[in-house]
Amino acid sequence: MKEHILKPRLRELVYRSIYPFENNRPIRRYVRDKILQRQYHKQKDVKTVPLEQLQFSLHLVDHCNLNCIGCDHFSPLASPWFADLYETERDLLLLHELIGEKCRYVHLFGGEPLLHPQINDFIHLVRKYFPNSDLCILTNGTLLPRMADYFFTTCLEERVQIRVTRYPINFDYDKVLHELQHRGIDVRSNEHVEKTMYMTPLSRKKDQDATDSFILCHRSNNCITLRDGKLFTCPMMSVIHILNQAFHTQYEVGPEDYIDLNTVRSYDEIMTKLASPSSFCGYCKMRDMRFGIPWRTSKRVPEEWIAEL
Fold first, then answer.
1. In DSSP terms, which residues pair with 202 in a beta bridge?
2. Torsion of CA 200, 206, 210, 212, to 10 degrees
3. How many domains does one find in the chain?
4. Least buried of 8, 77, 273, 280, by fewest C-beta within 10 Å?
5. Does residue 197 lie in a domain region?
6. CATH at 256
7. pTM for the predicted model, two decimal places
């Protein structure tokens, strides 16, 4: 199956290629643009092709127990918010009626999804409507030692994979992962604690080429998010209200930027829309992305997310 993302190795290549010219902006921009132009042509005929099956994530919480610089879900800025189980069932029912079993996988994420007190119920709910899809929890792993036995029993019964991202913090990841494997849990993790961050600067105006941004973006038509009865081709759109509330910005998400499950008519309509640039893509300065930012805690300042004027 074709890959629909700008792979981490390529992003690192861009970073390493321009780093020697950090103080020479014309050369830096020239090298970067050459690499991105090459990638643009590679992805152009892939990004705009509808996926063979839907893949989506459920946003269970906005907040997180870590505080990562530039988190692109804006978790350091978020107040506690928990997805509603009954509203989510309504959304999954609508989606299932539209797509049937044409679902490759479902991810549960946040924020930190293990903060949701009803995470077991959400696992059962996803399995009720998508019994044959891959189901995965994306977590920083630090709350796993506190989870009740019933959570791990649920993961085993419902065939849930737990995918842990390691951060350079004082936490014994190896011990926790070993204990989960001993329980028979399907757990995966990055091998080394070399977590770095990246930043997609947001322009304060919708002045970027939306098609260009869509094709270069690793999220578009890949990190699809279901929230409040809407499907977004990119998770940032589903949580942009957090940034607006924190910094009094006015990033807009309109009906043209998502798929309303109450009005969409067919599976083909869904998949075609997800493979198309949205108006919101016009905010994203993909050609000014920054890579290799050392992990540290957020200072909760606009510069972590918004492009300099």
1. 284, 306
2. -50
3. 1
4. 8
5. yes
6. 3.20.20
7. 0.85
